[in-house]
Design goal:
Radius of gyration: 18 Å
Strand content: under 5%
Mean pLDDT: 88
Number of helices: 7
Oligomer: single chain
Distance between the termini: 31 Å
Structural class: mainly alpha
Helix content: 55-70%
Strand order of the largest sheet: 1-2
Length: about 200
């Protein structure tokens, strides 16, 4: 059951690059000081008027993060930690690996949100009813949340892909993203250490 739910999380991660007929194109058109010269992409030349909170391209990514990625990742983490379900794990390392995969994707999503919007609400659980009092965390707090998740993922993800499970996350993926998050937090020595682990991992 947990592996099936993880498959759904992996599908959501893949959807980042194909939301609504490849809307990912918005992130390849330029930055706030330079943009494409193509006529067909003229709207992207002024990010102040185009990249607004109501722009469909951006709304899709906000919804992708909060309605798919964080919801699915947190569902796995919450249920894997339920005391009444601990007897289903013959080996604790198996539970930790499942949680590590979900925490990687939760960190990936929070990092994405912080890079795009700065401070955003940190969602680290699931809700059983409507919630209308979300609080925006600072960008640094969002990165710190991602850092904690990635440090856990780095500890518990396998060094190599398990047999017959191509495409599953490994430790180097967590260390790679962790190095980026460390840079965002100004923890450069730790970023070097994490990147060095990737380089030496084979």
């Amino acid at each position: 059951g947990f592996n099936n739910y993880l498959n759904g999380l992996y599908i959501s991660a893949r959807d980042e690059l194909s939301l609504s007929d490849n809307q990912y194109v918005i992130f390849n058109q330029g930055v706030d000081i330079a943009s494409t010269g193509e006529k067909k992409n003229i709207n992207f030349r002024n990010y102040e008027t185009y990249a607004t909170p109501t722009r469909n391209h951006l709304v899709k990514y906000w919804d992708w993060a909060y309605l798919q990625m964080l919801h699915r990742a947190n569902t796995i983490i919450v249920y894997a930690n339920k005391p009444e379900l601990q007897s289903i794990w013959p080996v604790e390392a198996n539970r930790n690996r499942i949680i590590a995969e979900a925490r990687f994707f939760r960190a990936y999503t929070h990092n994405f949100l912080a890079n795009m919007w700065g401070g955003v609400p940190i969602i680290d659980t699931i809700f059983t009813g409507p919630k209308t009092d979300f609080v925006r965390s600072t960008r640094e707090e969002v990165y710190e949340s991602a850092k904690a998740d990635l440090e856990y993922a780095s500890q518990w993800l396998p060094a190599t892909v398990p047999a017959n499970q191509e495409g599953r996350l490994v430790k180097a993926a967590a260390d790679h993203l962790l190095s980026e998050v460390y840079i965002s937090l100004g923890e450069y020595d730790k970023a070097v250490e994490a990147a060095t682990r990737v380089i030496g991992s084979g």
